[in-house]
Amino acid sequence: GINAEYGGRVLPQADIEAGIKAILADPSPSLPPNQSPGVFTALDRTSWWKLRNELSRDETNKDSLEDIDESIFVLCLDDVSLEEEQRNKLCTNFLYGDVRNRWFDKNFSIIVTKNGKAAVNFEHSWGDGVAVLRYMNETLKDTQTKPHLSSQSSSAPSFKRLPFNLNSDLQSALDSAWKKFNSVTEKLDFHAEFVEGIGKNYFKSRNMSPDAAAQLSFQLAYKKMYGKTVSTYESSSTAAFRHGRTEAIRSATPESVEFVNSVVNKESKEVALAKLRTAAKAHSEWVKDGAMGKGVDRHLFALLQLSKATESTPAIFRDPSYAVMGENILSTSTLISPYLSGGGFGPVSNGYGVGYGVEDEKCGFAISSYGLKTKEFVSHIKESLHDIKSVLDSKA
């Protein structure tokens, strides 16, 4: 770790750079994965909490944990070079990567590859993508408009390794955590791709919401691949409200089903276009209601938590439809920025994690699943986008 503060002053950027170079030049060998306590942070929260308490019984471990907790963020310097074309490897590296230098419990980590590709991996309980994206945008803009580094020679600030002592029980738990980490990540199937020529500018020229078009492509793609419609979650920011976090946009609607069936059943382009417009309008209403705090998911979740203090669970939460709604087979989220080439996440259920962005002249997708033929699903999304374009062009 580097102490970026000295005598109440933030160290000059050049000194911090010198410290990072000194760490990179440090000849000390890296810990093998099954000896790095960062693996513990990849476990479920309850397991990690219990192990953290065990680690803290040792004063050396307690001091190292405090140093990590008090740091602004974690900087992960990966000894790997990845190119822009290696999208799938970039996604998996930035999602979990080399677990030896990860600390997934930290608010956020900046990960940098050997050839300068970078990403932010953030822990989700404290905040959401909107806040992280603002941080990324402002930081990257400053590096271009107000660069601080100079060619002045600097002395490296002191840095230290953060040691951990592992007794036999903790070492056994670490071995198990390492095996579980491998088991989970080996099953994770990630596929990232762009669809060129269909983007925000095209959809706006056809008086179509870009987000509605993207979401309808997911509905149509799933129907083509599986023959049915499933519960779909799209994140909506409620940051306009004090302490606002998110609300859910439910993108699988009766109107979207009508449009999807129209395409699958090969109805006329005129009929399909009318249903597309209706579905897009319904989606836009969901988006507006979510942003203005008029969604239903967070309200129902709060009522469910309150009901746990009563003797019986209300009927609405015992209804099978509530369980279906809660299992988000398509979990989707979008962020776009001129500084961002993409973003994604793991699936939250036995379905797909769909990260997407509709840019000016293209659509980008970074989609994950646990062995559900992710690449094939992406192919169906691409095909569905072209189906939607064909319908929109029929009345251009």
Secondary structure layout:
Layout: E1 5-6, E2 9-10, H1 13-25, H2 45-55, H3 59-70, E3 74-77, H4 87-95, E4 108-112, E5 118-122, H5 129-145, H6 168-187, E6 188-196, H7 200-205, H8 210-226, E7 232-237, E8 246-249, H9 254-264, H10 269-291, H11 297-307, H12 315-318, H13 320-326, E9 330-334, E10 352-358, E11 362-370, H14 374-393
Parallel strand pairs: 3-4, 7-9, 9-10
Antiparallel strand pairs: 1-2, 4-5, 6-11, 7-8, 10-11
Helix pairs in contact: 8-9, 8-10, 8-14, 9-10, 10-14
Short synopsis of the structure:
It is built from 14 helices and eleven strands.
Q: What is the end-to-end distance?
A: 59 Å
Total number of helices: 14
Q: β content, as a range?
A: 5-15%
- Radius of gyration, whole Å: 24 Å
Order of helices and strands: EEHHHEHEEHHEHHEEHHHHHEEEH
Poorly predicted runs of 5 or more residues: none
**Major β-sheet strand ordering:** 6-11-10-9-7-8
Report the sheet with the most strands, covering strand number, pairing sense and barrel closure: 6 strands, mixed
Backbone structural class = alpha/beta
Mean pLDDT: 91
Descriptive notes:
This protein is an alpha/beta fold. The chain is built from 14 helices and eleven strands. The protein has helices at residues 13-25, 45-55, 59-70, 87-95, 129-145, 168-187, 200-205, 210-226, 254-264, 269-291, 297-307, 315-318, 320-326, 374-393; strands at residues 5-6, 9-10, 74-77, 108-112, 118-122, 188-196, 232-237, 246-249, 330-334, 352-358, 362-370. A six-stranded mixed sheet has the order 6-11-10-9-7-8, with helices on both faces. α8 (210-226) crosses α9 (254-264), α8 (210-226) packs across α10 (269-291) and α9 runs antiparallel to α10 (269-291). It is globular, with a radius of gyration of 24 Å. The mean pLDDT is 91.
